[in-house]
Protein: Recombination protein RecR
Organism: Leptotrichia rugosa
Amino acid sequence: MKKLDDLIDVFAKLPGIGRKSAQRIAFDILEKSENEIDEMLNTIKTSHFGIKHCKICGNLSENDICEICSDDKRDKNVICVVEGVRDVIAFEKSDTYFGLYHVLGGKIDPLNGITTEDLNLKNLINRLDGSVKEVILALNPDLEGETTNLYLTKILKGKNIKVSKIASGIPIGGNIEYTDILTLGKSLEGRIDIE
Amino acid sequence: MKKLDDLIDVFAKLPGIGRKSAQRIAFDILEKSENEIDEMLNTIKTSHFGIKHCKICGNLSENDICEICSDDKRDKNVICVVEGVRDVIAFEKSDTYFGLYHVLGGKIDPLNGITTEDLNLKNLINRLDGSVKEVILALNPDLEGETTNLYLTKILKGKNIKVSKIASGIPIGGNIEYTDILTLGKSLEGRIDIE
């Protein structure tokens, strides 16, 4: 049945949903009333239309400037540079960071054709107008993340701004025995004096 | 952000999708272009509106009568009674059954308030007009399935129709050691002479 296959396809294309789950969702959709469907489609439409990127930091926002950038209580001296909005949410949940963010929208990845041109970099440079004292690089610790870190360190050099990088190491609750050698190396390299 | 939470909620309400997956899907949605979103919403709307239940068997169909009921090559002498349309799809995939189906839309389940009134039973009785020689009961082998089997056997009695029930037992590739005792009992009870 073409219409059923089309419906399953819609959900199978979403990230993390396999064919089997998509089928299950499609049947669930078919059992909903027309009102429920209208409400659902309307929410998707309204959200997609109403959520944009903050003009300062690139975070998601319902307004031109996001809640974090427009929050007077945040420390405007520190900018934490992240890859995506998901990372902002993760740091916010941790309730340990009270500065600002800058969302790059990816990292330098020449193999996949992503260059500095594709990232939200110009806005970052514009923000470094003297009030910013520290930039924390919080990209995922992989090859592309390190490449991007190197690039950012280079362009931030000579601007009299402290540049730091989040620590890599064994996750809390993790197990040394089962930790990969790269992480183990990082955990030694980044060791902290305790006395 | 209310709009983002609303969007996540839409997907978190779908079956088999947790909060974390719903969040991932929501971000994916936000990255789509307006055209892609319109196409997606349109497909959902069209499918929901265009797929109905077959007037004969209750299977999903784009027309009044489903593809199976209107297929001349199917054996009209046998009706396989199933709980839902998913079961029809499963049997069709197995490519081992060539008769007709009847979708009950559930099974008798007094604890959850589902009685014979809520099932697609009248249509089934109407179909037993003499051309049908066998009814195969293919409900899931649990308490409610057995209750429904008993009820159906009772109303089919005296109609000069053969009533059968699909076999329960150890699944192909299954392991006797790890099979629950009820299934083991059924596998013995339903043993087949091999010589």
